[in-house]
Every structure is written in structure tokens, then in C-alpha cells.
Amino acid sequence: MTVLFLLQEVWRALQLAFDMLWEVLWPLALGFLLSAAVQTVVSKKTVARTLGRPDLRGVALACGFGAASSSCSYAAVALARALFRRGAAFSNAIIFEFASTNLVFELGLVLLVLLGWQFLAAELAGGLLMIAMLAVVFKWTLRQRLVERAREQAEKGLRGRMEGHGEMDMSITEGPFLRRMLSARALTAIAHTFYMDLASIWQDLLVGFLVAGALAAWVPNSFFHALFLTGNPALARVWGPLIGPVISMLSFVCSVGNVPLAAVLWNGGISFGGVVSFIFADLIILPIVNIHRKYYGGRMSLYLLGVSYLAMALAGFLVERAFLALGIAPPHFHVAVLLSHPEWNYTTFLDLAFLAVAALLGWRFLTTGGPAMLRMMAASSGSSAEGHQEHHH
């Protein structure tokens, strides 16, 4: 009986994980497709050249280019170091890093489908607010001596994760825009970028859905209610943005993979601002803190951890206060996907349609040297600094 009960509980967790994946499959695919299309016409060399000055224009461009890039947190961190080594201002490289994980297409679409438009709006508004706060804090507290030490450490080229992906550049910059986008070369570039992005993030997605399914199935709401102080709404609104990033740090889940976890925390009673700050915190999970240490040294990694946490928590708190003042903060509700199973509706038809698109891109990826490039990307992540720094595909 005990074994049967355990199997039933494991099956329930897996079913919840699959239900969440099925609900957001098409927005994930659409987000990857849009991101791949943008990356096809935006050169990373061009990005590096435009981020050299830590002024308003540099910050705005870092936001824009970051939002148009991959959502993989590890690739974003690797690319930020590459941009820094190529001449981008350190503050702009870090802002690019935050924009590329918090303002990207796929994250916004998954939030919209899974949690609703208020969470999408809060993510965008809070992400811009957080980046603005970081820009101001960097301007007034980031000492040039610390940046110089970070550059010395960065030039050592110590390995992190997904560096081959961070260095990959398949952009097409010659010729009229429409001709570029409709060319066979563009289809190849989109297919390769689509599957490279997917390869870089699938582990985080898998872990995110499995952990979310397990928490939804096995952890009673009474535990979450006590953790999030739901009995005192005023205190919960302060506590939520403070505890949200801490949970994210300890979850080891980053990128879009933390959205299913956010849905479970929301069902458990965390505040609206707590959800927002939790989603922001994918760049302070412990593995990325360690990569920052390798890239820029211990002191800079601790500085980034401290200022990032404060910006995330404050942005989550302020966005919730603003939404409450405007009367658009969502009341607590149970996420529908955790209460239902897939059925024949628009979600299923959209999922099937985007699976067909993914299959077409997969055929193009397989027939144009994609697997070999994927192996090269993995090898680049394990190569020397000199080897992967100038390795473009």
C-alpha cells in the first residue's frame, strides 16, 4: 500500500508538471521563434560597439539588445563577459545581462498565459525600474578600481557555463531587411538559433516544471501560508519581495524555468510583489553567483549579489504598491493549470501548430549541420579563453 501511495504521488507530481508544460508550450515556442528571428538580424559585434559608455544611451541600448537576445541565464552571463572584454562598459554589460533574462519574449508570453496580464505588466515595469535603479547605483557606488580588478579577472578567461552559446553569432547583416529575413540563409540561422537557445535552457525548464509539480503535489498550502505571512496582508507585502529572491537563490532554477515555480508560490499565498521579485532573481542563484566570482573576482561577485538583491526586492515592492494604487493588482486566485488537465481547446491546437513549426525548424537544423554546430558550441564552452573568445559560427 505504501509503495502504491508513493507511486500515485509521484504520478500526480509528474502530471501537474506536464499540465503546466502543455499550457505554456506554444508561448515558449513562439518566444524562442521571435528571439531567434531578432538575433538573426542583430550582430553581437555591433552590440559590443554600442555599449562602451555608461550613459543613458548605453543603458537604453543594453536594455534593448538584452531584451532581443536569448533568455538563458548562463548564456546571458557568458555573453555579458564577452561584451565587457570587447569594450562594453561593465555596468552596461551587467544591465544587458539583466534585460536578457527579465525582458525577453518567451518569459513575457509564459507569464501572460500562466499568470495573467498583470504579472506580464509588472514584470516589464518592474524590470525597467530595477534596471534604472541598478544604473543609478552603479554610477554612484561602482568604483573604477573594482572594475579594473574585474577586467583583470575577466581576461583570465575562466570557464562558466554555456560560453559557446554566448559567443555564437549567426546574424545576417548584408542586404535589405526583407530580403534577408525571407532568404534560405535566414531560415537556417533561425533554425540554428532556435535549437541552440532550446539546448541552452532545456535543463532549467525541465527542473523548473518538475520542482513546481512536486511542490504543488506534495507541499500543503498551510506551509506556504505560514512562510508568506498571509495572515497579515500588510506585513506580507513587505515580506514577499524580501523572501522571493531568497527562495529563487536556493532553488537553483533560472531563466523561464522559474515561472512555473512562481505560479506555485502564488497559489501558496506569496504577495504579488513577491512573485515579481522571485522571477527577477534568476541571476542571483548560487551557481551564477559562483560564475560571477570566476569571471570578475570575489569582491565584485559579492557587490553584484548585494546590489542586485536590493534592486529586485525594492522593484517588487514598489511595483506592487503602484499596482495597488492604480487598482490593477490581482487578487489572489488559484492558477487554473494546477486545477485542470489538457483538453481539446485553443491551447491544444496552438501547441500542435507550434510543434509542427518546431519540427520544420528541426528538419532545417538537422540538414544544415546543426548537430555538428551544437557539438562545437559545447566544445567551445570547455575550451580555453582564447579559443572560445573569438569562436564565431
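the 2nd protein, sequnce then structure:
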Amino acid sequence: MGYALNQHADHVLIELRADGGGGYRIPYGGAYRLVSCPNYLGEMMEWAGWALACWNLGALAFFVWTVANLAPRAIKTHRWYKETFPDYPQERKALLPFIV
């Protein structure tokens, strides 16, 4: 599920520039209805699954490192969207739907 979420979120971002237009736009659709960075959430889910499947300290450490890297980036990106776009959907969270 994490892989599918990550791929879909990346596809939505790629399509924002498909018409050749420049500048930044607000992504819509899919998990973007709920969070600003579903691609980061999907990647964290992927590594969580990998850590569970491997069930060792190295895999757990990699998952923790990924969360420590992507969670602050998601919060910063969410904040940037809200500051840059006055019409940014207020119900969206940074990373976890309905929570953060």
C-alpha cells in the first residue's frame, strides 16, 4: 500500500507540470485530499513494511532514519503551502490524516 500511495502521489506532482507551465501549484486528488505530503507517507509505510518483514535492528534503524528525515520535511512543506497559497485547503494535515 505504501508503494502504491508513493507512486500515485508522485504521479500527481508530475502531472502538475505536464502542460509545460512553470510555477508552483496546489496538488489535488487521491491522498492529497487529506495530507500535503502523501509521497512521504507512502515511503514511510514502505520502509515500515520492510522493517516488519525483516524483523531486525538494521531494518528498524532504517525505518526510524526515514521517518526522522521525512517527517520534518513534510511539516515544513505543509507550512510552505499554507504560507504561499491563501486558498490552500485548511483541512489538510502535513503527514498523517486527521492528526498532524
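The mean pLDDT is 95. The first helix runs from residue 2 to 15.
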